[in-house]
Write a structure and sequence with these properties.
mainly beta, three-stranded mixed beta sheet, globular, binds zinc ion, Carbonic_anhydrase_a-class, zinc, metal-binding, lyase, Alpha_CA_prokaryot-like
Length: 266
């Protein structure tokens, strides 16, 4: 998932012109704000790729040293049978604005009506974005694409709903987004796009639920993950329209380190 602010107090001397006050609270909604202009440019390959994120900046330490990192392989035989009614996803028709942030294409949600509840806490959908190929694997299987629906509660804790995508029929719910993906950071339009999110999710909301991290720097931990087990379908053309812009923007699998994975449903 994408940027959440992390506690830190380091402002590189080279960036005095961009001197900013960085809040101590984590905020999903702070992505793409100027606070991160001083952060190093990370990528998915080579000298600035995932193996090096942790050493690139003191704020990225969790990427290298964290013990509860994401993504991970989710094995159904190892998952603990959890309670039914553990969570509830209430997504509906919503207006979004698309941005290309250089790492993915992100749909910023304009109204706060889409929510997920988990353990009695309510999280509001802030944005969703995509990775290709998938970041999580289920029973060792990697998918063509993974959508991350990033939600935040009143204490700025994040809950991400992961939706796996396999190649198949065109996805009508995501067509308004995938027919106009901004190919560059400059080409995004401010035109709101209406997306029926309820129709995008799979019918079966059984999910692997575990605690992990952002899958992009600063790799902040304490993120609730709800990875739906039933994949959705998108056509090859839809998948390719994203893959032409981002060839591979998936972080490699991380160690589970004995973390509990629950198999739960609504
Ligand atoms: Zn993501």
């Amino acid at each position: 998932m994408e940027m959440i602010m992390q506690k830190h107090s380091v402002v590189p001397l080279t960036c005095l012109a961009a001197l900013v006050v960085v809040t101590a609270s984590a905020s999903v909604l702070a992505q793409s704000q100027h606070d991160w202009s001083a952060a190093p440019h990370w990528t998915y390959a080579g000298a600035t790729g995932p193996d090096h994120w942790g050493a690139m900046d003191p704020r990225f330490t969790a990427c290298g040293k964290g013990k509860d990192q994401s993504p991970i392989d989710l094995e159904s035989r190892d998952a603990k049978s959890g309670k039914n009614g553990a969570f509830h996803i209430a997504y509906e028709k919503t207006d979004v604005a698309l941005v290309n942030n250089g790492h993915t294409i992100q749909a910023n949600v304009k109204d706060p009506n889409d929510t997920v509840t988990l353990d009695g806490d309510t999280y509001h959908l802030a944005q969703f974005h995509f990775h290709t190929p998938s970041e999580h694997t289920t029973d060792g299987q990697r998918y063509k694409l993974e959508a991350h629906f990033v939600n935040e509660d009143s204490n700025k804790r994040a809950l991400v709903v992961g939706v796996l995508v396999r190649e198949g029929k065109p996805n009508p719910g995501l067509a308004p987004v995938f027919s106009q993906l901004p190919a560059s950071e400059e080409s995004a339009s401010n035109q709101p796009i209406s997306v029926d999110l309820a129709s995008v999710l799979p019918k079966d909301h059984r999910a692997f639920v575990y605690t992990g991290s952002l899958t992009t720097p600063p790799c902040t931990e304490g993120v609730h993950w709800v990875v739906l087990e039933q994949p959705i379908e998108m056509s090859r053309e839809q998948i390719d329209s994203f893959a032409r812009i981002f060839h591979a923007n998936n972080r490699p699998l991380q160690k589970a380190n004995g973390r509990e994975i629950d198999d739960e449903s609504e």
